[in-house]
Amino acid sequence: MGIIDKLNKDFESRIRLGLMSVLMVNDWIDFTEMKALLNTTDGNLASHSSSLEKSGYIEIKKEFVGKKPKTSYRVTNMGRAAFVCHLNSLEKLFKSK
Predict the structure, then answer these.
(1) pLDDT class for 4, splitting at 50, 70, 90?
(2) What is the pTM of this model?
């Protein structure tokens, strides 16, 4: 198996890569802040975060603050390990050139 085969397809999108990068250095991030950081649309963020949640890489918390809904994200232990492995594979790929 080559280095490129070790890259995780779940992190190929720039939105997913950005989402995971933000979550690796923060605890909980809310939807509005994540959307602004990634400069993306509501639907795009919701779609990509849902896929990462289904893979077990992030946790999504939905709650009400006052009478307003609030969605927040955090990385899971499995997500942290998978993303570190992905980044290590990227680094090896760059060093092999």
Answers:
(1) confident
(2) 0.90
